[in-house]
Amino acid sequence: MARLKGKIALVTGGSRGIGRAIALDLAINEADVAFTYRQNEVEAQSVVEQVTKIGRRCLAIRAEVTDFEKAGQVVEQVQATWGGLDILVNNAGIHHNEAIWAMNETQWDAVLEVNLKGVFNYIRAAASIFRAQKSGKIINIASIHGLRGRQEGANYSAAKAGVIGLTKSVARDLGPYQVNVNVVAPGIIETDLVRAIPPELRERFIAETVLGRIGQVEDVAYLVTFLASDQARHITGEVIKVDGGQYI
Length: 248
Ligand code: NDP
Fold this sequence. Notes:
Elements (H helix, E strand, L loop, with lengths): L7 E4 L5 H12 L3 E6 L3 H14 L3 E5 L5 H15 L4 E4 L14 H29 L2 E6 L12 H21 L4 E8 L5 H4 L3 H10 L8 H12 L10 E4 L6
The protein binds NADPH dihydro-nicotinamide-adenine-dinucleotide phosphate (NDP).
NADPH dihydro-nicotinamide-adenine-dinucleotide phosphate (NDP) binds next to helix 1, strand 2 and helix 6.
């Protein structure tokens, strides 16, 4: 179903995992897709090939999300290349598993910088465009751990809770300009990020779901596409979980 015909999207962290699935589903729904990645050229190129095969334009930009100036340049590059921007998906994220008594300053700062400041950087870069054109969709990927605590993940939970607060505030700022700003909060989803957590923690998270399954990247992407479409025009400042009932 082509819900996004003629739209231009930018996804942070689109080379792998959830971001990759989002980029592909936006393209299947007829958006042109630019995405950023940190280092993985090979994976980035394979996303470009897949989007191109779908029949949409694709732009892969190597950019560290923590770099404020670079975020401005990325948004400018998308605008200069395709003449606009309609959809921003803030997806790039990392985690470090550590109990609070062992967490060092570097681990705290790294997760806050990527998972929270990175989201600010791209919203700040796109806000003036969306405000001027009186339209736009911003979808921020947080986590159910932004709604509840995460054992051995105080930095991660704090950053994701911050994303939720940031989203609600930006929804208020940009609402008068017809810009929708929402959070998608996944539970456990099968990606490299989750493959890196201790197996017993992974099993515990899966056991928490009432559906008894680990989520797939497409489960998140389908909701993002809906929120990016005009069918979601009356939804803003919302936090929607995709977690198989893990949180309830
Ligand atoms: P992955 O580790 O599979 O992929 C991360 C993506 O983000 C990659 O494209 C990576 O680029 C990019 N990235 C990472 N750090 C940076 C950075 N500093 N600057 C630019 N790009 C960066 O992660 P997931 O797909 O699992 O996670 C995506 C989002 O979903 C994250 O925000 C995560 O917190 C959230 N989430 C994930 C859950 C899960 O269970 N998987 C659950 C809840 C939320 P590169 O390929 O170059 O490294």
